[in-house]
Specification:
The chain has a single domain, classed as L-arginine/glycine Amidinotransferase, Chain A (5-stranded Propeller), CATH 3.75.10.10. The chain has a 4-stranded mixed sheet with strand order 8-9-10-13, with helices on one face. By secondary structure, it is of the alpha/beta class. It has helices spanning about 55-75, 110, 140-145, 180-185, 220-230, 280-285, 330-335; strands at about 20-25, 80, 95, 100, 115, 120, 150-155, 205-210, 210-215, 235-240, 255-260, 260-265, 270-275, 285-290, 315, 320-325, 340-345, 360-365.
Length: about 375
């Protein structure tokens, strides 16, 4: 009988040596259905406009091959890997406040789970289709709760997601090709969500020890950031925005900490910090490097995500990263920055929720909570 070590839940940043991680699965995944939060996300060139229901079995199989390979690579590096339990995502979502035709899936574990120290936080989620997504991870969280007496599970307040949670008519007469209008509105921090209740996706946060950087955008509102600040009083939670981003969803294609003192930014999306914190990184001696250009001019077929998934790699330790194999420019840049780059195929998994970082959620990284930004 295999002697599996008992769980330790502890992760304070994005780069300390990874010991235990969750890798998502594509099984039972469904094509997202337009809803108030994402009415215009599906560009005509994506190839999924008008499609609904479960993904084709052939596409699910290809995605799972790549996700299984990611799990094998991580295990080969000595990392313990767990997988979520897919539910029937093709069933309708129904609450007293809304109904939605189907769910999405459990490939992007990073979107739902935020690990801060010994606590794993289930995000509120801001899409109706994702209201019950946490159920795929609950068996794992309960197992960790039993095995680690210090582990804490927190479920952020589930939102009602009524019509009041969204700006009515926000996407009317707007298409993804209307770049100038969309960017102008986003640059003014005018997003589809309102402030009637806290909303946040876990993937809008990136962790740097005592400091968390949280993107304000389509999936995280100001009240969600305020909830995180109140819930994590021993941390400094910084609100960030990014200019020129027509679809501000999730931070890990815009700001990626690589190791202490080194952070990667997106050259197409300049960061906007809160007043008085504009130079927080340089003030504390951090080098900010701009990511290399993506190797692909267009998203993967059937994928509605940005080409900047090129930045969505997984840091295994301060010297090792796992990257998508065809993102040759990004991989070359990381190699020049001193990383051992492990390239793997992953583009078939993109339509199910993003790239390698998206597909994972930390359970345990070595290290402690450091103060890396003492000059506030």
């Amino acid at each position: 009988m295999e002697n599996t070590p008992r769980t330790v839940v502890s992760s304070w940043n994005e780069w300390d040596p990874l010991k235990h991680v969750i890798v998502g699965v594509a099984t039972n995944g469904c094509i997202p259905v337009s809803e108030p939060a994402i009415e215009y996300d599906f560009a005509p060139e994506s190839g999924i406009v008008g499609r609904t229901g479960p993904w084709a079995e052939e596409l699910v199989g290809r995605a799972n091959e790549e996700l299984d390979n990611l799990a094998r690579v991580l295990r080969g590096l000595g990392v313990r890997v767990d997988r979520p339990t897919p539910i029937a995502f093709d069933q309708p979502v129904k609450t007293p406040d809304f109904e939605h035709p189907s769910m999405i899936g459990c490939m992007p574990a990073r979107d739902v789970l935020l690990t801060v120290g010994n606590e794993m936080i289930e995000a509120t989620m801001s899409y109706r289709a994702r209201w019950f997504e946490y159920l795929a991870y609950r068996p794992l969280l309960m197992k960790y709760f039993e095995e680690d007496p210090r582990m804490r599970i927190t479920s952020a307040p589930k939102p009602r997601l009524t019509a009041a949670s969204y700006k009515q008519g926000y996407f009317e007469n707007t298409s993804i090709s209307d770049f100038g209008r969309i960017v102008s509105r986003a640059d003014q921090q005018d997003y589809v969500t309102t402030e009637v209740e806290p909303l946040f996706d876990a993937a809008d946060a990136t962790r740097c020890g005592r400091d968390l950087f949280v993107q304000h955008g389509f999936t995280t509102n100001l009240k969600g950031i305020d909830w995180l600040r109140r819930h994590l009083p021993n941390h400094r939670v910084h609100r960030v925005n990014f200019r020129n981003d027509p679809d501000p969803v999730h931070i890990d294609c815009s700001l990626v900490p690589l190791r202490p003192g080194l952070v990667m930014g997106n050259p197409d999306r300049p960061i906007v910090m809160e007043p008085g914190k504009e130079d927080l990184f340089t003030r504390n001696g951090w080098e900010v490097v701009m990511a290399a250009k993506p190797a692909h001019a267009k998203p993967q077929p059937l994928c509605y995500y940005s080409i900047w998934l090129s930045m969505n790699f997984l840091t295994v330790d301060p010297k090792t990263v796992i990257c998508e194999e065809t993102e040759v420019y990004q991989n070359e840049q990381l190699s020049k920055l001193g990383f051992n780059v492990i390239p793997i195929p992953f583009r078939n998994a993109y339509p199910f929720g993003g790239s390698i970082h998206c597909a994972t959620a930390d359970v345990h990284r070595e290290g402690s909570c450091e103060d890396l930004f003492p000059k506030q």
